[in-house]
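Cast an eye over this sequence plus tokens and walk me through the fold:

***
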Amino acid sequence: MQPLAPQAPLENPVGQGGTVVVRQGRMHSEKRFVLRETLRVADLGGLLRARAYRLAREMGALRVAIKTTFMMGYSRRDLSPIVDPVVLGDLLAILAEAGLSRVSVVEAPNFYGAHFQGRAVQDVATYFGIGSVVDASRDQEGGVCRSWRDADFRIVLGKMRSHPVDGASLCIAALDGICEAPRGLSPDTAAISRVLAECPPHFAVLDAYENCPDSVVGLMACRKPKHPLRFYAGDDALTVDLVAASHMGISDPRAIPVLRQAVDRFTGKLGVNGVDEVISQWRHLGEDHLSALLGRLAASLSPAEAARQPLVVPQMDPCEFPTRGRPAAWLLIGRRVLQKVLGLEPPA
């Protein structure tokens, strides 16, 4: 009798539903253990082995791509806008322990690079202690990042962050930059839809352990970030985002633009293995007049406006990311005032 083939991950699991594993630690020092436990219960290893079986390859021959998010980072003193480099490093270590050596980390530049120096993808990665990274904007073929498209197994590693325009930025939003498109503060919904249709992730991990921004400026900066001490994981990135959004207190996921179309294609059932509770005291867009006003202000950071001289930017590390050129005095003064008022600066 032939042995049964392991259950291979679907070619496009997005919208198929499934169980989201949510694990919560009791203290900050448990972060690495909780991450490993989350990935073990979500059966990342089993999905990788099944993928190798389906492609008739050895595990070591699999090409893996991880799309993560750290280009909103502006200072080592505020890690709230980025995926924790320790979490990314541990994920790479877990893959290496499974015999996977052909692993690429992918990220794309954003509008900060037009206004500040030192914002190349690898430069920002090095600043935050992250190793070699593929710049998706320099790895394009047919408008899609080759390292991501051609990978045998694709993982998206997102960060739980509020967003001043969209309400939340989670795993699917972290796919921004895979497809060529103008980049503003909000992800390009058409480009994200193309990724989900043509080269979707096979697995999603959401970093919600430490330094998660829920301020009115959301993913741009946060003086007092939350520490939910949680990780979320599953093979359907949409399901992961739906569960995480509900835990952030977002009752209608269609309010998040990048999820709107994906939610309409959701055909599966949603389940939670582990913690299924709203995060205590999480703030989100629109619950007060200030956040609503800021949302309208931040909405001005469309790709066209972001290409000019934006007024709403965080206080960059001046040694590593100095301002380009000589902005007008009124612009510099306006930026500094908003940085103070809105908390667009690292904690004191």
